[in-house]
Amino acid sequence: MARLSRAETQERNRAKVLAAARDEFARRGFREAKVDVIAERAELTRGAVYSNFPGKRALYFAVLADLAERAPRPAGPPAHASAAGALAAFAGAWIARLPLSTDTESEDARLGRDLLPEILADEHTRRPYAQLMRVNAILLGLALERLRPGRRLVRVAEAALTTLHGASQLAAAAPGFGEPFHLVTACAALLDLDLADHWPAEPPITTQARPAADPWQPPAATDLLTGETVRPGDGVVTILGLHRAAAFEEAVRVGADVTAVLVTSDPAELLPLARLAVADLRSCLDQAIAPPARPRLRIVCDATGELAAAAGVTAVSDATETAVRVDGGRIVARAEGFGACHAVAVGSVPGRSSGG
After folding, report:
1. Contact indicator for 45, 39 with CB cutoff of 8 Å
2. 303, 266 in Cβ contact below 8 A?
3. Which CATH number do you get for residue 20?
4. CATH number of the domain residue 329 falls in
5. How many other CB atoms are there within 10 angstroms of residue 211's CB atom?
6. Would you say 118 and 60 are in contact if contact means Cβ atoms under 8 Å apart?
7. Domain for residue 69, yes or no?
8. Is 344 part of any domain?
9. Total structural domains in the chain?
10. What is the DSSP letter of 150?
11. 244 and 188 together in one domain
12. Which end of the chain is more exposed for a tag (fewer CB within 10 A), N or C?
C-alpha cells in the first residue's frame, strides 16, 4: 500500500474530524458537544483536532458548510420564465426544508439549531454575517432582475429573505405556527411593492483607479455559486474583507465581469460561515432560477491569501477593499478603499470612463 503524503494525511484527518464532529453535534448539540469525544470518534488526539480547527465553533461552522455544499443538486434546470414564478419557487424550496409540527427532530435540524444563537453571541461573527446576508440579498436580487429587467430588486430579495429566515426561526421555536406555504404567495407578491430601490449613478465615496502593468497568475479556486473550479481571467477581481463583502455590487452594476474574492483575518472560522451562507442560498436558487438567468459573477473564498497576493494584496483584514482590472492576462488598473470596485470597473466596460 502506497504511503500517504503529508498533505494527503492532513486531508484524511480533516475528513475524519468533520465526520466525527457531525455525529457529536447531531447527538448532543453544539453546546454540549465535547472536543475530546470528537477526537476519540475520529481516532485522533485532541491536538490533531485543534491542528485542523482552531476551536469548537470553527469546527461547527465547517461541518455545516461541508454539509450544505454536499447537498444533492436538482437533476434538471428549473423552468420559471417570470420573476414572480422564480421567487415563489425559491421560497417553496426554502419552506420545504423546514420541519413540520408532526415531524420528529432530524439530525440536520439538531445540527443547525445552534447556528444563529452562536452567531449572535459574538460581534466577531455577527458583523460578518450581516454582510453575508447582504451578499445573499444581492445574489437573489440580481438573479430576479434577469427575469424582470428595468428595476433593482435587491430590496425585494431582502424582504423575502427576512420573511424566510423568520419562518425558519418560528418553525424551530413554535412548531405548527401558521401555514408555511402561505409564505410562498407572500414572497412572490413582494415583487409588486414599490420599495424605492434605486442604484445611484455614482457611489457617494469614490477612490481613483490608477494604471498598473503587473502579471496576473492566480491560483484555481472554487466558485461558491456553482461548486466548480475556476481560475479568474479577464474582468474585475475584487478582494473584499467580510466587513465589506457586499461591495462587489458596485462592479456588477457597471456591467463588468466580476470575481469577488472573500478574505478575512480569521479564515479558519469565518470563511466556513461564508461558504455556509452562500451554499444555503444556492440550494434554493438551483430549484428556482436556471444558471443562464443568473448574473456573470463568481464568488470565491481565499483561505490561504494566494488569490489576494496574486492581486498584489499582501496583508488582508475584514476591512480590506481592493479591486484590480485584468485584461489580456495582466493587471492593468487597481484601486483601494471605499469605491474601489466601482473605480476599477468603470474602465472595463466600453463607453465608460473612470475619470482618472
Report:
1. yes
2. no
3. 1.10.10
4. 3.40.30.10
5. 11
6. yes
7. no
8. yes
9. 3
10. T
11. no
12. N
* Nearest alpha-carbon partner for 239 in 297, 311, 295, 332: 311
Which one-letter DSSP state was computed for residue 229? Answer: E
**Contact present, 331 and 325 (Cβ < 8 Å):** yes
CA 238 from centroid of its chain's CA atoms: 15
- Among residues 243, 327, 289, 303, which one has the least CA distance to residue 58? 303
Same domain, 96 and 17: no
Pair (177, 239) in one structural domain: no
CA distance 284 to 134: 16
The per-residue pLDDT string of the chain (356 residues; one tens digit each, 9 = 90 and over) reads: 466 677 777 888 999 999 999 999 999 999 999 999 999 999 999 999 999 899 999 999 999 999 999 988 877 667 677 999 999 999 999 998 887 655 555 666 678 889 999 999 999 999 999 999 999 999 999 999 999 999 999 999 999 999 999 998 888 888 878 787 899 999 999 999 999 999 987 777 778 999 999 999 999 999 999 999 999 999 999 999 999 999 999 999 999 999 999 999 999 999 999 999 999 999 999 999 887 777 789 999 999 999 999 999 999 999 999 999 999 999 999 999 999 999 999 976 555 554 44
Shared-domain flag, residues 184 and 238: no
Question: Looking at the domain assignment, is residue 160 inside a domain?
Answer: yes
Phi and psi dihedrals of 330, rounded to 5?
-135, 150
User: Helix-strand-coil percent breakdown of the chain, rounded to 5?
Assistant: 50, 10, 35
Helix (H, G, I), strand (E, B) or coil at 157: helix
**Domain span including residue 176:** 83-192
DSSP 283-329: HHHTTTS-GGGS-SEEEEE-SSSHHHHHTT--S--TT-EEEEEEETT
Count of C-beta atoms within a 10 Å radius of residue 56: 20
